[in-house]
Amino acid sequence: MHLLLLAVGKTDSRAIEELTKLYADRLGHYLPFTLQIIPDIRRSSKLTPELQKQMEGAEILRQTSTSDKVVLFDERGREFSSTAFASYIERVMVSGARRLVFVIGGPYGFSEEVYKRADDRVSLSQMTFSHQMVRLFAVEQLYRAQTILRGEPYHHE
């Protein structure tokens, strides 16, 4: 199975970018992993938040195929412990899905079309984080899930 993390917007923090790359590289030792950045939509006075979500959503949908399992990182999604999240990923892996796509939306969230396409929603926390930090947290949790599934000592209960 291939794991893809789609994230809207670039990271302007070099420190967060380096940490994200560290965990992405580690994750790549367990399964094929790609972090794909969808460029920011240029803001203008004519661009409403709803229109921005629609434009970002069109690009998100363009990057996915009908056979993908698409999971949104969304504040209204289900919350998991790290071990439960690992089990969730394992269930997807054994289901026969060829590609599991996690998506981090833009500053205004997701368009209605993206919500309709999504197979599931997962919340990293009830707290609000910057999109840059969510990217780091998501990649670290995906890495952690792989170490849990293999019984490696990275995660401690």
From TrEMBL:
Pfam families: SPOUT_MTase (PF02590). One of its GO terms (molecular function) is rRNA (pseudouridine-N3-)-methyltransferase activity. Its main location: cytoplasm. Coiled coil: none annotated. One of its GO terms (cellular component) is cytoplasm. InterPro entries: Alpha/beta_knot_MTases, RlmH-like, tRNA_m1G_MTases_N. It catalyses: pseudouridine(1915) in 23S rRNA + S-adenosyl-L-methionine = N(3)-methylpseudouridine(1915) in 23S rRNA + S-adenosyl-L-homocysteine + H(+). S-adenosyl-L-methionine binds at G105, L124, S125, Q126, M127, T128, F129. Keywords: Cytoplasm, Methyltransferase, rRNA processing, S-adenosyl-L-methionine, Transferase. Its EC number is 2.1.1.177. It is found in: Cytoplasm. The keyword DNA-binding does not apply. It is an enzyme of class 2 (transferase). NCBIfam families: PRK00103.2-4 (NF000990). Specifically methylates the pseudouridine at position 1915 (m3Psi1915) in 23S rRNA. Homodimer. Belongs to the RNA methyltransferase RlmH family. HAMAP family: 23SrRNA_methyltr_H. This is Ribosomal RNA large subunit methyltransferase H. It comes from Porphyromonas somerae.
